[in-house]
Every structure is written in structure tokens, then in C-alpha cells.
């Protein structure tokens, strides 16, 4: 998905970093709206819709988490966290509340732009939809379209982040086989070196089940094999 002036809420309290990111996003074809506080960001969210939000984690009057919660209450606008902290607790907390990605400072602007394009492409595919069932892999009321990078449930598109989709396809491509947590971690490890560990995997499995299972507490598609790992149940096809 090309930028085409897509509006990005940019929340960063470091003036120099904020202005630099604002300039880089503008040069790449986006329309950034720069805020430096939670208060200003929430006000901006009330005034206009955004295609994506880039949120600094630590802000003078609160946290990027506060903004993320409000964004997710309003709809499905994707969120990428900008954080200087790469510890497990912050990463897992951000993912658990619905963040779509995160990037640890210092980062290269080209890497950030790549992340933005990836997330927006996936949102665009979910919003665009597609007729017909050609090439679909079905598990009960869930359909997966590998050629389109799209997943649907009961005929409605389901938005998955890049890592969630990669995790799902790893299980699908190994249908009937039990994959250990270490095998799954290896499959979804971000080539850019992002923080993906055992606890983070638990968050991804939880979020994936919440999106595709009828009852995430009693999953029928992604089965837990105690002491061994996870398996996609091919009996539902």
C-alpha cells in the first residue's frame, strides 16, 4: 500500500527526534501529525481519523499505553510503539493491549518506514476483501488465502499482524505436526533482531486464538499439546 498522504499520528516528546521523524514521514509521502503529550494526542484523535499511530512509550504526562488503549477503544487503527526499553515486560504489555508492532530506539528511519508499509499493507488487505473461495484453506468457519495474505472468519476479514500471520502459516504448513515452542520462535523471529521470546510467543498465540477461535479458552483449531507445543487440527478441514 502506497502512502498517498495517509495520516499518521506521531507522538514523541523529544523535540529533535519528533521533528526528524515528522520530516522523514513527510518526505516518504505520509501526512504526520506530531504531538508531544498524551493530552495533545488524545485531542488529535477526537478531531480526525488516522491510518496509523506511532507512539513513544514514555511521555511527560503519561504513557503511550494510555493512547493505545483509547485508539483500540475507537477502532482498529494500527499502532507501532517507539521505545527505548526493549525489556520483556514492556514488549509483552504493548502486544497484549493490541499493538501491531514495536521498534526499539535507536533505529534506522528506513527500517521504521519498512515497518509502517508492512502494517499498512496488511490493514489494506483486510479492509479490501476479496470475492470467491479460490485457493482458500479452510478450518471450520475460518478461511486462509495464502496467495493474498488474507484470513477470514464467517466471511468477514480478520486483521492479523505480520508476526501473527507468520505464526499461523507456520502451523498451517505443518498441519497435523506438533511444533515445539522453540520451533515456533525460530519461525517468527524477526530478521531485524526484534525482541521475540517465549513469553512473547504466548501473547501471539493468545491473540491469534482470540481472532480466529469461536471460544479462545477452548480452542478447536490451534491445539495445545501439553509438554510438547502446538498443532493445527486438520480434522476441521
Describe this protein's structure.
The chain is of the alpha/beta class and 237 residues long. It folds into two domains: 7-125, Rossmann fold; 131-236, Arc Repressor Mutant, subunit A (Orthogonal Bundle), CATH 1.10.10. Helices cover 41% and strands 21% of the residues. It has eight helices and 13 strands. The protein has helices at residues 15-27, 38-47, 64-74, 88-96, 109-128, 162-172, 181-188, 198-212, and strands spanning 7-11, 31-35, 52-56, 58-59, 62-63, 79-83, 101-104, 137-139, 142-145, 150-153, 156-158, 222-225, 229-232. The strands form four sheets. A five-stranded parallel sheet has the order 2-1-3-6-7, sandwiched between helices. The radius of gyration is 18 Å and the shape is elongated. 30% of the residues are buried. Residues 125-132 have low confidence and may be disordered.
Amino acid at each position: 500500500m502506497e502512502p498517498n498522504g495517509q495520516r499518521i499520528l506521531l507522538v514523541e516528546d523529544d523535540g529533535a527526534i519528533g521533528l526528524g521523524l515528522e520530516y522523514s514521514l513527510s518526505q516518504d509521502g505520509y501526512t504526520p501529525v506530531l504531538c508531544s503529550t498524551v493530552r495533545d494526542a488524545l485531542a488529535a484523535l477526537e478531531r480526525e481519523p488516522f491510518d496509523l499511530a506511532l507512539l513513544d512509550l514514555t511521555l511527560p504526562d503519561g504513557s503511550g499505553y494510555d493512547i493505545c488503549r483509547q485508539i483500540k477503544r475507537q477502532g482498529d487503527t494500527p499502532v507501532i510503539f517507539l521505545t527505548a526499553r526493549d525489556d520483556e515486560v514492556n514488549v509483552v504489555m504493548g502486544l497484549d493491549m493490541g499493538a501491531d508492532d514495536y521498534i526499539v530506539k535507536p533505529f534506522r528511519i528506513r527500517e521504521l518506514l519498512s515497518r509502517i508499509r508492512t502494517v499498512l499493507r496488511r490493514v489494506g488487505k483486510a479492509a479490501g476483501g476479496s470475492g470467491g473461495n479460490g485457493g482458500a484453506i479452510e478450518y471450520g468457519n475460518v478461511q486462509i488465502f495464502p496467495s493474498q495474505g488474507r484470513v477470514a472468519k464467517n466471511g468477514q476479514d480478520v486483521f492479523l499482524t505480520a508476526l501473527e500471520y507468520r505464526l499461523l502459516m507456520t502451523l498451517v504448513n505443518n498441519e497435523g505436526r506438533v511444533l515445539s515452542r522453540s520451533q515456533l520462535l525460530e519461525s517468527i523471529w524477526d530478521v531485524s533482531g526484534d525482541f521475540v521470546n517465549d513469553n512473547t510467543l504466548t501473547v501471539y498465540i493468545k491473540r491469534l486464538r482470540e481472532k480466529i477461535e469461536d471460544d479462545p479458552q477452548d480452542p478447536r483449531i490451534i491445539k495445545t499439546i501439553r509438554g510438547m507445543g502446538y498443532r493445527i487440527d486438520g480434522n476441521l478441514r
